[in-house]
Design brief:
413 residues; 7-stranded parallel β-sheet
Length: 413
């Protein structure tokens, strides 16, 4: 439960969460919603999103109501969308404003990404307490824009606040994660996890994962490496290739003999067991992934997705590199040669693996959902503390602040 959340005179707290687009914004929003509901079971929680992103599937599946608005992501390559973008902000904000007033919303939480923009703007117009959460180590354009209208900013990583306005209540909260992942115990799961992946005594497991859909470059390089290592008895590669790429990777492993040391899967239905069994992982550097690695204490070779907006995955990866928990290589460098060059000295040095694991493990994410929920409920209970001027002269003079019109031209998915 969330402590220190005094009951309101109004029997039910009404909360709107703006989240959508990708799982990196949706899953932390759902984890926070669960924490709010655990603290106050009668809370009325509704998500605001669009019909374009994953929210249409993930949020209803989690048992929450989704209200969709007509917010468009900015694609600078599509001129018609660029022209309609300011209109979509006005229209979607008006739609959200009707939701806030109709439901007598007490507080709004924006989780970043373009679907959260109208939720925060509508809350500003309605003078409803509002807070945003920045999940990356460098803020996205959506949060850089709406931070002008949000007096309260929660960070997943300390570095995430560098390009956000000063004179806000900014706190390092961590990345909200599900209760099941928060309860992760590597030592308790280790034996079961190794049995699950049929690991022999003395075998090191390398987990290669490109996210929910896999990553073609990572999977192919790992399959090539498996062919080179086919005669080794001390290594097991587990490659999450994604459904579409699995047949190609299977064929590659068959042709080069890599099946002797590698297993390719479409997906992993027990990610907790994968984390507990693995000794090191090769993966992308999305905010959710980096937070999970930090929580479970798993050393990593991070390959930032090169098309991520403003290269934010490189900033996420650097946060772990700086503390000695990860090695970063560029997507253009990925090959069997490069992976072998990076992995071999780590896998053959147990002390280095242990040091990286210890450096990776951070406890801030364990309580992030509850801490963010507590803050949301405090704002709902005491709306007066949110009445700070979000247009002060000092904020306008801050080097990271720009006028609203320029931000409208920058926003992207």
């Amino acid at each position: 439960m969330v402590p220190n959340s005094s009951p309101r005179s109004n029997p039910a707290t009404s909360v709107v969460i703006g989240a959508g687009g990708t799982g990196g914004h949706i899953y932390p929003g759902l984890a926070t919603a669960d924490a709010i509901r655990a603290a106050r079971p009668d809370s009325q929680i509704v998500f605001v999103g669009t019909k374009r992103g994953l929210e249409g599937q993930l949020i209803p599946q989690a048992g929450y109501e989704l209200v969709t608005v007509d917010m468009l992501p900015l694609n600078k390559n599509l001129r018609w969308r660029l022209a309609l973008f300011p209109v979509s902000i006005v229209r979607s904000t008006a739609q959200t404003l009707r939701t806030l007033r109709g439901r007598k919303v007490d507080v709004v939480l924006g989780m970043g990404g373009y679907p959260s923009v109208p939720a925060v703007l509508a809350a500003w117009l309605a003078r409803v307490p509002r807070i945003i959460h920045e999940s990356n180590a460098t803020p996205g354009l959506a949060n850089r824009f709406v931070s002008r209208f949000a007096p309260n900013i929660a960070l997943a990583f300390q570095e995430g606040g560098r390009k956000l306005p000063r004179h806000r209540d900014t706190r390092l909260i961590g990345m909200p994660i599900s209760e099941s992942l928060a309860a992760f115990d590597r030592n308790a799961l280790r034996e079961e996890a190794r049995a699950h992946f049929s690991l022999k005594d003395g075998e090191r497991m390398v987990l290669v994962s490109g996210g929910s859909l896999g990553a073609v470059r990572l999977s192919r390089a790992a399959a090539d490496l498996a062919g080179r290592w086919r005669n080794r008895t001390d290594i097991r590669l587990v490659i999450k290739a994604g459904r579409d790429q699995l047949p190609t990777i299977e064929q590659q492993l068959t042709s080069n003999g890599g099946h002797d040391v590698a297993t390719a899967l479409a997906y992993l239905d027990r990610m907790d067991l994968a984390y507990a069994a693995a000794d090191i992982t090769v993966c992308r550097a999305g905010s959710g992934t980096v937070a999970e690695l930090s929580h479970v204490g798993l050393p990593a070779v991070l390959v930032p997705y090169p098309s991520a907006p403003h290269d934010h995955q490189s900033f996420n990866a650097q946060a772990l590199v700086d503390i000695g928990a990860a090695i970063m290589i560029r997507d253009s460098e990925v090959s069997a040669d490069r992976l072998e060059q990076v992995l071999t000295p780590v896998l053959t040095d147990p002390a280095r693996l242990a040091t990286m694991a210890a450096a990776a493990h951070q406890t801030v994410h364990v309580t992030a959902a509850r801490d963010l929920a507590r803050w949301v409920l405090e704002l709902a209970d005491h709306p007066g503390i949110d009445r700070r001027d979000s247009h002060s002269r000092s904020d306008r003079d801050h080097p990271y602040d720009h006028d609203i019109d320029s931000h409208e031209q920058e926003l992207s998915a």
